[in-house]
Amino acid sequence: MRYSAAMTDDTLNGEDSIIQEFLAPLAAGYPGAFGLKDDCAVIAPPAGSDLVVKTDPIVAGVHFLPNAEPDDIAWRALAVNVSDLAGKGATPIAYVMALSLPEAPKRTWMAKFAAGLAEAQRAFGCHLIGGDTDRAPGSVTVTITAFGTVPAGTLVRRGTARAGDQIFVTGTLGDAALGLAVLQQSPLDIGRLGFGAADALGMMKRFLRPQPRLALGPLLRAHASAAMDLSDGLAKDCGRMCLASGVGARLFLAALPLSAAMRKAIARDEAWQKTAVSGGDDYEILAAVPQDKAAAFLSDAAKLDFPVTRIGEMIGGHGVRIDRPDGSELILDRTGWDHF
Residue 148 and residue 299: Cα distance in Å, rounded? Predict the structure, then answer.
């Protein structure tokens, strides 16, 4: 690769350099990507499968901090899309990416970004197969469209829950919001959250590196009547499932799965209890399971390496009610994240 005399070794020279040096290696192993040397890619789903598609952009200052490390940005960009596939019971196979940068990237930045993508796609089992890079004023923006497959006719939708279904959630709630709070303050102030450095690191990782719950896919297809991932907060996303399904939900505050760090934060300041319910960026899975399948669902879920917890039930009516241990309703100032 050649550079002009005025070009430093740290600045990449042109779009082709970005693609061929850093992005094309991510396409290796997927024949339909053609090494990113063509204008389009080819996806050939396995026989008897449906293709599932999801796109979700992330923008600096909105979805990640402007000073975030490029490998964390890359992981997050792919993970938030794969998480939606996980919530449908789908298996990721490929993705395309549009990368918009306000200026030509430094070689070190691009190398770390590509390394983060490589790590994420190995973890999630998919490959980059195409996309675009451009220069545009404003913030770094990464737009990924992810493709997955499910056996034909088995997609688990969000709008098919029924009254009487038991409500389950994976993992623990509110940790990403807690991690963001840690990232936004001086390390000297972490103590006011009620926990120490080890917990702080764990919570930051929950925000920076979401973990799509792909292993739950077969269980969702076998048992769930409805499912979706939690990106904007439990209360808000559960409300979306209820609205789409024409039912209501009753959740039990005492049943919500909380990490040790979140419990410490709540003990220091009870306001964090509401954050556990309304904080976004969890990227866990919310599932509605018919009562006669709930025991089998839990039995199968016990074999996974993350917890699955019953937190409530679908009921007739509309909206989401969250019951405190004394039977009173938890009233939220906001149910979750909304761009507008």
Answer: 26
* Per-residue DSSP letter, 139: S
Burial of 285 per CB tally in 10 Å (0-12, 13-18, 19+): buried
Residue 226 main-chain phi, psi, to 5 deg:
-155, 155
* Three-state secondary-structure class, residue 257: coil
Domain count, the chain: 2
Tell me the C-alpha distance between 115 and 118, whole Å: 5
Q: Contact at 8 Å (CB) between 96 and 129?
A: yes
For residue 86, what are the domain limits? 15-151
Q: Read off the CATH number of the domain in which 93 is found.
A: 3.30.1330.10
pLDDT digits (tens, 9 = 90+) for 190-209: 667 788 889 999 999 999 99
- Two tokens at 142? 């990464």
pLDDT of residue 62: 80
For 128, half-sphere exposure in the C-beta direction (CA atoms, 13 angstrom radius) is: 31
Q: Which residue has the tokens 């590509």?
A: 114
Q: Retrieve residue 271's tokens.
A: 């306001």
What does the pLDDT look like over 216-233, one tens digit per residue? 999 999 999 999 999 999
Give residues with Cβ within 8 angstroms of 2, minimum separation 6: 13
Tokens of 96: 């395309």
Give the whole-angstrom CA distance, residue 253 versus residue 279. 14
Rounded distance, CA 259 to CA 248, Å?
Answer: 27
Asked whether residue 124 falls in the same domain as residue 59, the answer is: yes
**Rounded to two decimals, what is the model's pTM?**
0.92
List pLDDT tens digits, range 93-135.
999 999 999 998 889 999 999 999 999 999 999 999 999 999 8
Residues 79, 109: Cα–Cα separation, whole Å: 19
| Residue 22 belongs to a domain | yes
Percent of the chain with pLDDT over 90: 79
